[in-house]
């Protein structure tokens, strides 16, 4: 006869939807389906505009295209579990699928952080060293930066992701969110998780936290350079080129900080709060970034207006 824990250690996990709101899933699914549709359409539109408009073939817009692609992939990596729960298709997910989703969610977050840092470097170079902008950010240099960002996000997380496959999950397989996260799987494991815990903490410090610090430092130099400009109009013009990027940074880091605070200090809060914060962390940046850059970036805004007017005509 197998031990009682054998059944618990099955390879199927149960995702949490919206606790206590199961009867409202058909209504809740409407805004979530609309948000995912806007994520896909908005980011695809940004990619299409950058691809088809020769004047946008510049380093800043290459980084923006990578940001849009990252946001698009983030939506694709979670849509099947989030809407699967709300459409009452399935709340279960296998271990291998859960580990794969964990890899993409955390890897894409690391990618987005790296892209935002690259965009900060672009703005720093354009404002603080404008005469050398084209010689510093050549096409070859941009390709090197992009490859470095992708290699960092895809390889650095592999050691902890691979170990998840070999853990013994003896606790009830109920996950805290509508998608899989590394810390959520660790909570269910009865194996030695010290390496994963320490490595994940070091990874967050060396990627997300370090990127945030470098972004802040870059803007300190940018602000110092802008304040040295005599003309008020020129100062405003220089700062306006940074507004979209600053908004994108806030849209990315505020949900991460909020989710971290809820996980760390909000254990007494309703599970619904944890689920909502998790979905905001996943969906808010991919939803807002296309809106921010469509509204705040003159080149993209004018190109979209022209494109839509031709379509309507």
TrEMBL record:
SUPFAM superfamilies: Family A G protein-coupled receptor-like. GO terms for biological process: cellular response to lipid. Residues 42-293 form the G-protein coupled receptors family 1 profile domain. Pfam families: 7tm_4. One of its GO terms (cellular component) is plasma membrane. The keyword Membrane applies. It is found in: Cell membrane; Membrane. Keywords: Cell membrane, G-protein coupled receptor, Membrane, Olfaction, Receptor, Sensory transduction, Transducer, Transmembrane, Transmembrane helix. Belongs to the G-protein coupled receptor 1 family. This is Olfactory receptor. It comes from Tupaia chinensis (Chinese tree shrew).
